[in-house]
Design goal:
By secondary structure, the protein is of the alpha+beta class. The chain is 16% helix and 35% strand. The longest helix is centred in the first third of the chain and has 22 residues.
């Protein structure tokens, strides 16, 4: 029973974080609080966003590193998509984790990533989006 509740909670947070990321795909971090009447079941923007998102393009995989604004107290959701598509949740990482590797990618396509800090079921904050820049040159790894 507890696992079902936990899985449902994680799914709701992932969907909420995805909405947050899709709401502002600009290159500016989103750390402000949402004002006015808000549906209490939808997470709001709040808390410090992850910063310093760096990509290590390895062809069929991409390594991500970032700075933890919560100092090990908040888990993260990794979001990604092919360039030009909507970001979607691909992984959840534990509090204090500041690196992740996405594997199984097409070495000929560009991908975009963002990291979402989950402060609570009702408060999340997204990093700036970062994209691979493969163009015609492929990584040599």
């Amino acid at each position: 029973m507890a696992l079902t509740v936990l899985a449902t909670l994680v799914a709701l947070v992932a969907v909420g974080a995805l909405v947050v990321v899709l709401a502002d795909r600009s290159q500016e971090p989103v750390a402000q609080e949402t004002e006015g009447a808000v549906d209490p079941s939808v997470p709001v923007l709040g808390g410090a966003p992850p910063t310093g998102l760096e990509l290590d393009d390895r062809g069929t995989s991409v390594g991500l590193t970032w700075a933890d604004p919560a100092k090990g107290k908040a888990p993260f959701i990794i979001t990604m998509a092919k360039r030009g598509e909507q970001l979607r949740s691909v992984a959840h990482v534990d509090p204090g984790t500041v690196e992740f590797v996405e594997r199984g990618l097409n070495a000929d396509l560009d991908y975009c990533f963002a990291v979402v800090a989950v402060y609570s079921t009702k408060q999340v904050s997204s990093s700036v989006q970062a994209c691979t820049k493969r163009g015609t040159a492929r990584p040599q790894r």
